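Recall from the previous lesson that a structure prediction takes nothing but the amino acid sequence as input. Here we apply that procedure to DUF4349 domain-containing protein from Flavobacterium stagni. The sequence below is the only information supplied.
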Amino acid sequence: MKKRTIPLVGLFIWLTTLSCKQHENAVKQQQESETTMVTDSVSSNTLTTAAAVEPKNSTQKFVRTGDVRVRVKDVVQSTQRIENAVSSAGGMITHTKMESVVDDRKETVISQDSVLVTQQYHTENEMILRVPNAQLNTVLQSISKEVEYVDYRTIDAENVTAQFLANELEQQRKKESSTRLQKGIDQRSAKLNQVVEAEKAREVKASEKDAKFIENLQLNDKSSYATLALKLYQNNAIKQERLARMEISERLRPSFGFRAWQNVKTGWFALESTLSFLLLFWPVGLLGGIGYYGYKRFAKK
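The prediction returns the following tokens.
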């Protein structure tokens, strides 16, 4: 009876364990599925906005600007894909600055002649994108595919239609005023000083007209291409490398006998150098000896 009970108990334990494992696997798969669904939702809809939509057949002119900071899995790879997306949309990148920022650095001595350097760092990239207004949402969707976390996203659309019209009307007024002044100058009915003053006034009107023309060109560029300031960063990473210690350890110091012999040789070389230097003054010694000999000889007489 006991022999039959033992196999039954073992079978019961095995079935219970198997059931628990299947339940854990099912829960894990469900969590992964939910995580994937959330990630896909964030990736496809996080950055797009109605403010980036260009109305069809609209006569309005908008200057669109944006400021976005997001976390991505890999800054280098995400940067390459975003640059390709901007290029495909007919845009351009006017600024990019990628760098690795060290957040923490530690040195651990692991032997007498080496040290383990551990660095905690993160990589980030700052970019300025110029994208055609009609393609702004498309580029934002491409950026969304790289997103793991959104710090912030700001998109502004400023209507500059009235400013365009005001500049055009101002140009027309300056042009007409300049034309009337030119006709008055050409008639030469006034005195020379009056003509000079009129010419100066005409030049001022022409300069003001040109300034409004250039301002409209700049507005047209800004309204044709949206400007997006994009900041990418990734989670902190850790890098370890083994380096040689710069300090000389006691084990590597030369022995006393070796250092003493080196000092003896150094002293001998110093003595040789001193004697060799004194030999440079042998003419002085020769003249001194001759003088001394002559002095003794004349002194005896």
